């Protein structure tokens, strides 16, 4: 997340040396400060920078610099992003899973009388009272298994593409275009891993779900519909998540420029930016999320509604005499036929309530782990540098 004057490349003073410009000072390849840049003669138009070598006294008396955790070491960046992203994804989905369960049920087009809720808190109370205290987290294990690798790939690809594209489009500065493109590409890779987990999760979240557990659900889907059942909503998921993540990342980066212009580790700004970005993106993409839920759950009454109108249409059958809703267009028609335009915003409040803390948790945990990992590497590098200097003495 680059800003002007931070982590831009500067030619080395010696052949083969690598220096980085940071806050008016020069860093060598190990992160140690080697000097500062200042004008040759103050007041002159020729503002030629001169490198002043810091003496040992100046080095010891200077203020300890803020760790540049946004400008990660090139050799360690990918592993750092993957580890931080994996932890962030698992925590985000597991902590917010009960709200996600409520969202899935509130998006049902034909809810059972016992599964009609006034709001999120009413839904949680009814689920716990009538179905047991563990019912809101049923299926969380499959989501945790999918979220780890999916978010590791998601954040690693986002950071790599963002920095590479920013250097090409707008060197030395943050580029909203690069942020949006990076978010879109990261989403494609993320959803490839997460879509099967989403299908199983939402099947188990529905009221009166017939499955005994995750393995029973997976086996049942494979027997009846084959592997295609796990990717039936993939194109709809991408259609929703690409604009969601592009809007999410662009809003997050924009808010970071306002709330955290120096791009230091600032938990409050990460939480606020993540929550607002998630809420805005969630509200804008709710209609597509309703269609995705329908494609994943294949509600029996919604499928039954399609039979008369689709008798002559070609469709892939999942069992003799049965069919399924396939594709975004058919899902949109089903949703509209069921409840008109308002049906596309079923569960919008639950989706916003889910996404605000969810994205806040994801970004704050991700930035925290990225900061801690980078700080430890900085300390190790500094200790190695100190040992080298002691040996030279």
Task: Give a description of the structure.
The two termini are 39 Å apart. The model is unreliable at 1-67, 71-76 and 310-321 (pLDDT under 50). The chain has 13 helices and five strands. Helix 5 (140-169) runs antiparallel to helix 6. Strands 1-2-3-4-5 form a five-stranded antiparallel sheet, with no helix packed on it. A hairpin with a 6-residue loop joins strand 1 (6-11) and strand 2. The chain has helices at residues 56-61, 77-95, 97-106, 120-131, 140-169, 176-205, 214-225, 234-259, 267-284, 286-297, 300-306, 328-339, 348-392; strands at residues 6-11, 18-22, 25-27, 33-39, 49-53. It has 393 residues and is an alpha+beta fold. The protein is globular.
Count the E strands: 5
Judged by helices, strands and strand pairing, the structural class is alpha+beta
Number of helices: 13
Task: Report the C-alpha radius of gyration, rounded.
Answer: 26 Å
Shape: globular
Low-confidence stretches: 1-67, 71-76, 310-321
Distance from first to last alpha carbon: 39 Å
The mean pLDDT is 77
Percent helix range: 55-70%
Share of residues in strands: 5-15%
- Write the H/E string, N to C: EEEEEHHHHHHHHHHHHH
Largest sheet, strands/sense/barrel: 5 strands, antiparallel
Strands of the largest sheet, in order across it? 1-2-3-4-5
